[in-house]
Amino acid sequence: MEVVDIDARAAKLGIDWSQVNFDSIQLPPGEDFGIESDDEAVYQDDQSEFDTGFGNIIVVDHLPVVPKEKFEKLEGVVKKIYNQLGVIKENGLWMPVDPDTKMTLGYCFIEFNTPQKGARTRLFLMVEYFLRVSLNVWGSLQEAQNAKEKSHGYKLDKSHIFAVNMFDDFDRLMNVKEEWEPPQARPYVPGENLQKWLTDEKARDQLVIRSGPDTEVFWNDTRQKAPEPVHKRPYWTESYVQWSPLGTYLVTLHKQGAAVWGGADTFTRLMRYQHSMVKLVDFSPGEKYLVTYHSQEPSNPRDASKVEIKVFDVRTGRMMRDFKGSADEFSIGGPGGVAGASWPVFRWAGGKDDKYFAKLSKNTISVYETETFSLIDKKSMKVDNVVDICWSPTDSILSLFVPEQGGGNQPAKVALVQIPSKVELRQKNLFSVSDCKMYWQSSGEYLAVKVDRYTKTKKSTYSGFELFRIKERDIPIEVLELDNKNDKIIAFAWEPKGHRFAVIHGDQPRPDVSFYSMKTAQNTGRVSKLATLKAKQANALFWSPTGKYIILAGLKGFNGQLEFFNVDELETMATAEHFMATDIEWDPTGRYVATAVTSVHEMENGFTIWSFNGIMLYRILKDHFFQLAWRPRPPSFLTAEKEEEIAKTLKKYSKKYEAEDQDVSLLLSEQDREKRKALKEEWEKWVMQWKSLHEEEKLVRQNLRDGEVSDVEEDEYEAKEVEFEDLIDVTEEIVQES
Amino acid sequence: MTMACVSTEGLGLDGRRFNQMRSSSHQTLETRMRPILMKGHERPLTFLRYNRDGDLLFSCAKDHTPTLWLADNGERLGTYGGHNGAVWCCDVSRDSSRLVTGSADQTAKLWDVKSGKQLFTFNFGSSARSVDFSVGDHLAVITTDHFMGVSSAIHVKRIAEDPQDQVGDSVLVLQSPDRKKKINRAVWGPLNQTIVSGGEDTVIRIWDTETGKLLKQSDEEVGHKEAITSLCKAADDSHFLTGSHDKTAKACLWDMRTLTLIKSYTTVVPVNAVAMSPLLNHVVLGGGQDASAVTTTDHRAGKFEAKFYDTILEEEIGGVKGHFGPINALAFNPDGKSFSSGGEDGYVRLHHFDSNYFNIKI
């Protein structure tokens, strides 16, 4: 647009520039009216060559073919239709007529208001804005596009359904070759082995830590008694990192969305998932899908925050479905979470198929299936007042809890529902219940429900357990009460893949820990108590992922007391302390365990690696230590029988590893000795230098001291020499050892 | 004036620590070593200093009276009354006749060690943070803080042979480039040719005493990251050790002539005090969580421990516990057979090493 144009246009509209106060015009932010700024225009000069300038013309097909008499009527109809969708340029409708028959040809061209391009300055922008406001033609720029989309398929009558195309498209479509050319088959490029870390020769595990701005992935090398770095990156993530459930990916969070990393040798970015300001992520158990969560604080504090959740296919990066709504719809039940909703909002059904996921909202449970990403049977399940749901870790069975209603007239209920049939497999009514917590055993064989009941006075509560045997016929339920009914239950944990569970109960500061088994030699069908350990400083339970071993941990208030306990033998293997420890995590193989002090307080941040039986292996201190996570491993391919066989013949295998261990420790002590020797030599060089300088300066010093001879200094020197003999002794002794 | 105030107390051997050290093949320093607990100050200790013969120990504290102790049994010999503010630092002449003290009452005083008499008062416009006698004791370097308009500075005073002739004029005044930061310590370099200073601006500087020019300063990369709290030099002036509050809570060993970083020792709490054994290759770091940040949950959280490191290997050897506040001052007896520590808790703990200390192998 040139200045002349502007003047002409203004004159047409009867605007006097002298009366316009440009400063009073506020440009809406982010709006450029399709006018590029000067610098953009420079970059886009090349492109403009390809622009035919017909972008605002559409072609409408399948119009009725009418004779001359009806031409104007049809023209009127078409104008009427398209005037609703945009402003047609003056004389912008052209309906060609067959020169012989004077009949229309059944199509027409419509030109919309021309988008303005080529302006150069802010002045032009303002003028454009001003004119737009006067003309009241907001949004006319995309009119052509808009009109095309909106009117394509418009039914004028039964036999005339509009086919609308952009004029520009014709050129493109005409150029399509008549003959079909098969697309070139691209040669298959094998992808990276994303599970290469599993083939580590030393069978080590990886862990990721975040401290300060850095995120680091390490091998836990217990032979070297130190972590071996794999990958380190400052500002890798903007909030936290998370492994996928089978360990293939590491997900990082950014302003723009989430990204997953992985690869054979180092961590490269495999895929990005666009979700602005993502706050939380969650994988489906088979790591096929990634759920991302974002909530926006409302400007008005009385409103609920807005929540947006997206489900992505991890491998293709495609968004499968997104859910939007206010936080109220997402915030029922579930443990913890962030402001806005309890996380995870969507709970995935167990197993590796990633078939179903469920969402709990008020009075409804919505179960979706991943084939179509829609509700099963197209509708949610109505369950009045349901407050908690929990999937079996292996089967598509959903357990749900409904509290008492009507002041105790309607009992509380725990039910098991089969998905997708929505058949209720089992249910149990419970009376005078204050709260329930559901705990599934990791192989889905048992479900424990911790039930807090009111005492008769309703003033306090006591706890008991309802134990469901899922895999047995009719799902029998057993009731378990603790020896002392009034004990508070502090923690509960199933043995992974096992039949036992541990409970911390009693009063702080020295509660008891009890172990129960669902299956003992004498009592196969009944739960029985194995042992109670009295007065332990523990408030959390951490079973080894392979079972058998458990750590009774006293975190927070107990300053990090650790007791490594063997449940098979019912004996304590070791007690230790990681002072102020806040987190404990077993490695996926159950060989090592990491205890960490994270940055909840400033003191002694860092982590310690222990063997399963409580021997401290090494300790790393890091300031501002935020997170530690072992890389999970996918389940083993070995059958249970094979595993058992290996366990029996373990001695055969362990010989090899013991020999390797020995080699490494020899090598290490050798290296250590070399290092020490070098350090000592270097130090001695310094000392020699100092000594000679001191000797040189002796006379000057004596003068400074008014001639006093410092014989004592000589003594001091002798003392130092003695010291060196001492140190040489040290070296000799080590040599003798080896 | 010779009021004895001696008490002893066990070291409170900590099982956890003990086991940990055993398991990590370290040896503990203390099994029978019993410290002498010297309670003479009412406020936190600030500085400790042995005389050259190692029979006297001078202590400075935030109460106003520097105190003299017998370094062997902790008997209190006397106090030096006259300051009207916290006493930050002191130094004793080679012949143990003169004591110089620097105080928050904006003075540095010269004392007669034996009689406890004040010989001279140097007046400054701000508190005197550190003092150090030169080789030959004819000069003293005194650092002063910034205060109301007065910038922090290093003053060199001539010390007269006869106190009658003493004058208050400075021979040389050096001003730190960063005038608003305290200079926590300045000491003489070899042969009085240089002065080494370190303070809140984290930089160690070496000054020429003839010209007053800045000769060297520590590199940002290798140097401390936070305030330098303490500086102690080797007996032969060849190297020195600095302690700092920086995040790794480091102490660094430097060559005094070239300002080359030779070793650094890392601990987890801020370092307030450092000392070097004159006998063995050991350095000691003292400190602990800042008094204002001390948690109330557990006494172990503060780490009020004097930590011993192997000078050459930079590895921790062990620790001596006992203070229930941060350690502000550390000093080795020149014979290397005992050391003392002074804490925020107001106690001086005097430790004589057991024989097994001298046979530590690592």
TrEMBL record, chain A:
One of its GO terms (cellular component) is eukaryotic 48S preinitiation complex. It is found in: Cytoplasm. Residues 428-628 form the Translation initiation factor beta propellor-like domain. Coiled coil: none annotated. One of its GO terms (molecular function) is translation initiation factor activity. It holds the Pfam family eIF2A. The keyword Cytoplasm applies. GO terms for biological process: formation of cytoplasmic translation initiation complex. InterPro entries: EIF3B, eIF3B_RRM, TIF_beta_prop-like. Its main location: cytoplasm. Keywords: Cytoplasm, Initiation factor, Protein biosynthesis, RNA-binding. Component of the eukaryotic translation initiation factor 3 (eIF-3) complex, which is involved in protein synthesis and, together with other initiation factors, stimulates binding of mRNA and methionyl-tRNAi to the 40S ribosome. Component of the eukaryotic translation initiation factor 3 (eIF-3) complex. Belongs to the eIF-3 subunit B family. This is Eukaryotic translation initiation factor 3 subunit B. It comes from Arabidopsis thaliana x Arabidopsis arenosa.
UniProtKB/TrEMBL annotation, chain B:
WD repeats lie at residues 38-79, 80-121, 176-217, 320-350. Keywords: Cytoplasm, Initiation factor, Protein biosynthesis, Repeat, WD repeat. CDD domains: WD40 (cd00200). It is found in: Cytoplasm. The keyword Transport does not apply. One of its GO terms (cellular component) is eukaryotic translation initiation factor 3 complex, eIF3m. GO terms for biological process: formation of cytoplasmic translation initiation complex. GO terms for molecular function: RNA binding; translation initiation factor activity. InterPro entries: eIF3i, WD40_repeat_CS, WD40_rpt. Its main location: cytoplasm. Belongs to the eIF-3 subunit I family. Component of the eukaryotic translation initiation factor 3 (eIF-3) complex, which is involved in protein synthesis of a specialized repertoire of mRNAs and, together with other initiation factors, stimulates binding of mRNA and methionyl-tRNAi to the 40S ribosome. The eIF-3 complex specifically targets and initiates translation of a subset of mRNAs involved in cell proliferation. This is Eukaryotic translation initiation factor 3 subunit I.
